[in-house]
Specification:
Layout (H helix, E strand, L loop, with lengths): L5 E5 L3 H13 L3 E5 L5 H8 L3 E5 L7 H11 L4 E5 L4 H9 L4 E4 L4 H16 L4 H7 L23
Parallel strand pairs: 1-2, 1-3, 3-4, 4-5
Helix pairs in contact: 2-3
Length: 157
């Protein structure tokens, strides 16, 4: 049995969290949500979600501040969920580390499609070690890696 990907959402509106839970669980994901920005980082560390959906406008810490804290600990994909349609707010979110955004109100099918796309891309994101191994850079012991070690997804011919 495949393990379901965990999606974490942070939004101060209970109604939005209930909707996200229903939509994402119906799409086959595990869901964990919180209305408290203050509990977002401990929850992130505990659950280690595959993706975070984060509201921008929240009391206390806002979504930008939470995103900054997330980026200090993790490179988990983050989709900002916002009622703000301002181009500058969305641009700022992308510049400080968000991977995507969706404006409220949103279409559930669009949300699921964006979640799937981000998870698909993050599953193939190379690690620094794998990049070094494929780049001809010697490892810690000074040995050169083989030029080709298995299938290379981007270089199929």
């Amino acid at each position: 049995m495949n393990k379901r990907s965990c999606i974490m959402a942070v939004d101060d509106e209970e109604e939005i969290l209930r909707l996200l839970r229903r939509v994402l669980e119906e799409a086959g994901y595990e869901f964990v949500g919180t209305t408290s920005a203050d509990s977002a980082i401990p929850l992130l560390c505990q659950k280690q979600p595959a993706l975070v959906i984060l509201d921008i406008m929240m009391p206390g810490l806002d979504g930008f501040q939470v995103l900054d804290l997330i980026r200090q600990k993790s490179d988990v994909p983050v989709i900002m969920l916002t009622g703000k349609g301002e181009v500058t707010a969305l641009r700022d979110a992308i510049e400080i580390g968000a991977d995507d955004y969706i404006s409220k109100p949103f279409y559930p099918k669009e949300l699921v499609a964006r979640v799937r796309a981000k998870l698909r891309r993050s599953a193939f994101r190379p690690t620094l070690d794998s990049l070094l191994m494929s780049s001809g850079v010697p490892d810690e012991s000074g040995h050169m890696p083989p030029l080709f070690s298995g299938r290379r997804g981007c270089n199929k011919r």
